[in-house]
């Protein structure tokens, strides 16, 4: 996974995702933990933590948090917020999702906002699952989400999007290759300076579409027991037009 995916837009990443209700998402994570845990959950890893929005949310709920992300720019944003909030107890690690190293095991790993779809090269998702398995305690939980094939084919597809908010305009074009199952996002962000002029940052992001069958099979191969695979913050099976899967698996050792 490339470290340059988010570096150019780290400073405006939270604005681009301002529609996300992290509190509601964290409520779901806690319901999953309560439903499936076999032992108390204290140590938690936020894998692909970005600017740390979910990391901070779970810390406020009493979890001992570690955040891992490959982008130093994103972690810089997270560290600055941690200083401002007095959250000095969070451990931030600039590492690859596929080969990270921790100081010990954790009770739960969460990975949010389709971070796993950014693992586009052959074998990357498997290496990530195996590394997560290695650092989970026996019966520990792996809670993550992924963008669905429906989202790639019907929502992303070959479409263009514009997002505007105070002092910010973001434009991106999508190119989805059905054969390779890869979607490229060409993003330009225009940010207003204090003098009224605008700066421009460009970047290219890439995501891979994975099938439900492949994800389930890979979890089993890497030593996980599938506990929940849904299309919303509940526990029912996903529908054909769901845009995101929410998954929980137990580490078997």
Could you describe the 3D structure shown?
There is one protein chain. This protein is of the alpha/beta class and 253 residues long. The chain is globular, with a radius of gyration of 18 Å. 28% of the residues lie in helices and 34% in strands. The protein has helices at 13-16, 22-36, 53-60, 72-85, 124-135, 149-156, 212-221, and strands spanning 43-47, 64-69, 91-94, 106-111, 136-147, 160-165, 168-177, 182-192, 198-208, 224-230, 244-251. Helix 5 links the parallel strand 4 (106-111) and strand 5 (136-147). Mean pLDDT is 90; it is low at 1-5. The strands form 2 sheets. The chain has a 7-stranded mixed β-sheet with strand order 3-2-1-4-5-11-10, with helices on both faces. It has a 4-stranded antiparallel β-sheet with strand order 6-7-8-9. It folds into 2 domains: 3-148 and 211-251, Rossmann fold (3-Layer(aba) Sandwich); 151-208, N-terminal domain of TfIIb. It has 7 helices and 11 strands. It starts with 12 loop residues before the first helix and ends with a strand.
Question: What structural keywords apply?
Answer:
single chain, 253 residues, alpha/beta, Rossmann fold, N-terminal domain of TfIIb, 2 domains, seven-stranded mixed β-sheet, four-stranded antiparallel β-sheet, 11 strands, 28% helix, disordered N terminus
Structural class: alpha/beta
> What is the architecture of the largest domain at the second tier of CATH?
3-Layer(aba) Sandwich
CATH fold naming of the largest domain:
Rossmann fold
Largest sheet: 7 strands, mixed
Widest β-sheet, arrangement of strands: 3-2-1-4-5-11-10
Query: Uncertain runs with pLDDT below 50, 5 residues or more?
Result: 1-5
* Overall pLDDT confidence: 90
**DSSP strand tally:** 11
CATH C-level class of the largest domain is Alpha Beta
Helix and strand pattern = HHEHEHEEHEHEEEEHEE
CATH superfamily of the largest domain: Vaccinia Virus protein VP39
- Give the helix level as a range of percent: 25-40%
**How far is it from the N-terminal to the C-terminal residue, by CA?**
27 Å
């Amino acid at each position: 996974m490339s470290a340059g995916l988010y570096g150019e837009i780290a400073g405006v990443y939270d604005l681009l995702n301002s529609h996300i209700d992290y509190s509601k998402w964290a409520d779901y994570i806690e319901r999953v933990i309560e439903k499936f845990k076999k032992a108390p959950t204290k140590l938690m890893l936020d894998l692909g933590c970005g600017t740390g929005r979910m990391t901070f949310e779970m810390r406020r709920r009493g979890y001992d948090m570690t955040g891992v992300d490959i982008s130093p720019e994103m972690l810089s944003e997270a560290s600055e917020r941690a200083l401002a909030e007095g959250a000095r107890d969070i451990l931030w690690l600039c590492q690859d999702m596929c080969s990270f190293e921790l100081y010990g095991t954790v009770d739960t790993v969460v990975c949010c906002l389709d971070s796993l779809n950014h693992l586009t090269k052959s074998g990357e998702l498997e290496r990530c699952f195996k590394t997560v398995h290695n650092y989970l305690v026996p019966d520990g939980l792996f809670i993550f989400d992924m963008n669905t094939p429906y989202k790639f084919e019907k929502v992303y597809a070959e479409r263009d999007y514009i997002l505007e908010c105070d002092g910010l305009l973001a434009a991106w074009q999508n190119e989805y290759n059905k054969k390779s199952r890869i979607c490229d996002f060409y993003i330009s962000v225009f940010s207003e300076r204090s003098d009224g002029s605008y700066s421009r940052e460009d970047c290219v992001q890439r995501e891979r579409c994975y099938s439900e069958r492949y994800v389930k099979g890979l979890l089993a191969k890497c030593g996980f027991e599938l506990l929940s695979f849904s299309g919303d913050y509940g526990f029912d099976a996903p529908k054909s037009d769901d845009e995101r899967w929410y998954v929980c698996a137990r580490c078997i050792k």
